[in-house]
Write a structure and sequence with these properties.
By secondary structure, this protein is an all-alpha fold. The protein has helices spanning 2-21, 24-42, 44-68, 100-112, 117-134, 141-163, 170-219. It is 75% helix and 0% strand.
Length: 225
């Protein structure tokens, strides 16, 4: 009995070593050879049993090796790479004008010239920003004049352009609206430049105050009395 167990272990070891050296094509030949040799050495029944044990052990070992072995590139399943989460777009918000007539003019122009809504929106934001800042600088003559122009002339111009659409052809209506959009764009660009100038002036004034305060703090002793 001990001899049979020893022979089975030796045959299993031999089968594993040979399997490591052979390809899958040669495994069937190896198993067949083991069956024949075992039958010749130990008899048909015992030899077949030993060969079966050796073949089974070899099969288990090969399956374990295959699981641990990395797959070749052509057999690897492509892992979809998730796209990075899009960054949230933080839109710049500008305070809307409190003038209902001007607000209605912007809405009406954007509604009729729907192909140019983004252009109208840019001009509107520029004008609204300027108006909010111009109201804080009433002594600036240029800013006051431009603010009156925006609040009064833009509604008048848009209303006049839209009033002509009823009797205009499609081409004429498109031309009228394109001209109106171009006009408010020019006003918006002017408002943006004026706002930058006002903002620069306010920043400069703040810098003067900061310098004055810093000098007073640096030159005078600080006491709690």
């Amino acid at each position: 009995m001990f001899f049979v167990v020893f022979a089975a272990i030796a045959m299993l070891t031999f089968a594993i070593v040979m399997a490591a050296m052979l390809r899958m094509v040669g495994i069937a030949v190896l198993v067949t050879t083991l069956v024949v040799l075992a039958s010749m050495l130990f008899g048909a029944g015992t030899g077949t049993t030993l060969a079966f044990i050796a073949g089974l052990g070899m099969l288990v070992w090969m399956m374990t090796r295959r699981r641990q072995r990395p797959l070749p590139p052509w057999q690897r399943r492509a892992v979809p790479v998730s796209a990075p989460a899009p960054r949230r777009q933080v839109a710049e918000t500008a305070p809307r004008t409190t003038d209902p007539t001007l607000a209605d003019a912007w809405d009406a122009l954007a509604g009729h010239a729907d192909w140019a809504r983004s252009r109208v929106a840019v001009a509107r934001v520029s004008c609204d920003r300027f108006l909010q800042l111009a109201d804080r600088a009433p002594l600036d003559g240029d800013a006051t004049e431009l603010a009156i122009l925006i609040r009064k002339r833009i509604p008048e111009h848009v209303d006049e352009a839209l009033s002509k659409l009823e009797l205009a052809t499609s081409a004429e209506a498109r031309a009228l609206l394109d001209d109106a959009v171009a006009t408010v764009e020019k006003v918006g660009a002017r408002a943006e430049r004026m706002r930058d100038a006002l903002m620069t002036a306010e920043t400069a004034a703040l810098g003067v105050q900061r310098t004055h305060l810093s000098r007073r703090i640096d030159n005078e002793p600080f006491t709690l009395n």
